[in-house]
Design goal:
Elements: H1 2-10, H2 19-26, H3 32-40, H4 46-49, H5 61-106, H6 109-115, H7 121-194, H8 198-240, H9 243-291
Helix pairs in contact: 5-7, 5-8, 7-8, 7-9
Length: about 290
């Protein structure tokens, strides 16, 4: 799971080329943590490195909200799928244990003393085969299916957490700064209309300029954050395209498992029919000999 997640991070269009990530994944020296700390302790975040002349496009907040809602619903669906697959794996594990127990019982001395040494050998072998197939399928499902779905869930959960941080953090601060700036402007306008002293109006004007500057700075940071959200939303939707392949692999493995188990059950059924018919014929012969 961790290797898969790191592979996804390495494929990220921005993080994948980050010197910090490259160093983290490739540095094999024993003191790599210390080396990374020294090399990157003064590194500032991406927004701080952004030039002031770079224009940040206005993001369509309705589209971002719709994308977030869509991905949240997909995350909920993946939770349900993961729960179903986990419960199925648990049932198959129980079946594997049950079949192993059946084999143990049929190989037991108590049964063999009554029915003979080889009476239940075929059924015992079938139970062993079903148990092994169930164990193999559970392991395969967890590694190839459930784990990959879990990675997608982690990706969507991280995206949802990012949206929450932006909404409750910088976006809320920006809205608060705009509201405060608007209130100062209203107070200044009322002071001018009422004919307040020039000192009071001048003070309000200075506060308005300072507040507008703060709002502009927060607005630029907010625009950058929304741009990051849009990029991460596109990336999350891109990785979600792997879900059909995951479910197709699940369907294929499910079909193969049931086919193999059916073959085992078919062979066991035919052999047991043969055994029962043979026993019945022997009983008929015994009855005939007694009658004679």
């Amino acid at each position: 799971g961790l290797q898969t997640w790191l592979a996804i991070i390495a494929m990220h269009p921005v993080l994948g080329s980050s010197p910090m990530l490259v160093t983290f994944l490739s540095d094999k020296t024993p003191d790599h943590l210390f080396r990374m700390r020294v090399a990157f302790e003064k590194q500032v975040d991406e927004f701080s490195r952004l030039r002031t002349d770079v224009d940040l496009p206005l993001e369509d907040q309705e589209k971002l909200a719709a994308s977030r809602d869509r991905l949240r619903k997909v995350l909920h669906s993946l939770h349900r799928l993961r729960k179903i697959f986990d419960e199925q794996a648990f049932r198959l594990e129980q079946q594997a244990r049950d079949m192993a127990e059946v084999d143990l019982i049929l190989q037991g001395l108590e049964v063999r003393e009554v029915f003979g040494e080889k009476t239940f050998d075929e059924m015992s072998n079938s139970a062993q085969a079903v148990s092994k197939q169930s164990e193999r399928y559970v392991q395969l499902q967890r590694n190839a299916i459930n784990e990959r779905i879990h990675v997608l869930m982690e990706l969507l959960a991280a995206h949802n957490e990012l949206c929450d941080r932006v909404e409750k953090g910088i976006f809320a601060e920006y809205q608060k700064a705009l509201s405060k700036s608007l209130n100062i402007s209203k107070i200044k306008m009322k002071s001018v209309i009422r004919g307040s002293g020039p000192d009071n109006v001048s003070t309000l004007a200075q506060r308005e300029v300072a507040q507008c500057g703060e709002a502009d700075a927060l607005g630029r940071r907010c625009a950058f954050a929304l741009h990051c959200v849009r990029s991460e939303s596109s990336l999350a939707e891109k990785y979600l395209q792997s879900l059909p392949a995951i479910l197709l692999a699940y369907a294929s493995e499910e079909s193969q498992y049931h086919s193999k188990v059916t073959d085992i059950e078919y062979v066991r059924s035919n052999r047991w029919k043969y055994f029962i018919n043979l026993s019945f014929a022997a009983d008929v012969e015994d009855l005939a000999s007694v009658s004679n």
